[in-house]
Amino acid sequence: MNEDDPAHDALLTPDDHRLLRIIGTGLSAAEAADLLGEELSAVAVQLAQIRRALNVGSTTAAIRVISGRRL
Questions:
Q1: Helices (DSSP H) in the chain: which residue ranges?
Q2: Burial profile 36-65: b = 16 or more Cβ within 10 angstroms, e = fewer
Q3: Which of 4, 21, 40, 56 makes a 20 to 30 Å CA pair with 48?
Q4: Predicted confidence (pLDDT) per residue in 55-69, tens digit
Q5: CATH number for position 21
Q6: What is the spatial distance between Cα 56 and Cα 60, in angstroms, rounded to a whole number?
Q7: What mean pLDDT value characterizes the chain?
Q8: pTM of the predicted model, to two decimals?
Q9: How confident is the model at residue 33 (pLDDT cuts 50, 70, 90)?
Q10: 10 inside domain
Q11: What is the DSSP secondary structure assignment for residue 44, as one 8-state letter?
Q12: Contact at 8 Å (CB) between 19 and 49?
């Protein structure tokens, strides 16, 4: 599956995809929060929701799922 996969569209919002792209560039959650103008706690909650939606145990695994790489 890749980021354009309709299954991901049903599970993740455009904001979720954006956050994963940002984190995927190597930024930390704190740096992503600063870039997005959000509180770190809000980004942490969003990342936890993404992991639950994709049924993965880490943010790295979530990035791999949306980018189509096998775990």
A1: 6-11, 14-24, 29-36, 40-54, 59-67
A2: eeeeeeebeebbeebbebbebeebeebbbb
A3: 4
A4: 999 999 999 998 885
A5: 1.10.10.10
A6: 9
A7: 88
A8: 0.83
A9: very high
A10: yes
A11: H
A12: no
Report the domain count for the chain: 1
Q: At what angle do helices 59-67 and 40-54 cross, to 10 degrees?
A: 60
Residue 30: exposed, middle, or buried by beta-carbon count in 10 A (0-12, 13-18, 19+)? exposed
CB within 8 Å of 64: residues ≥ 6 apart: 70, 71
Q: How many CB atoms lie within 10 A of CB 9?
A: 12
- For residue 32, give the 3-state DSSP assignment: helix
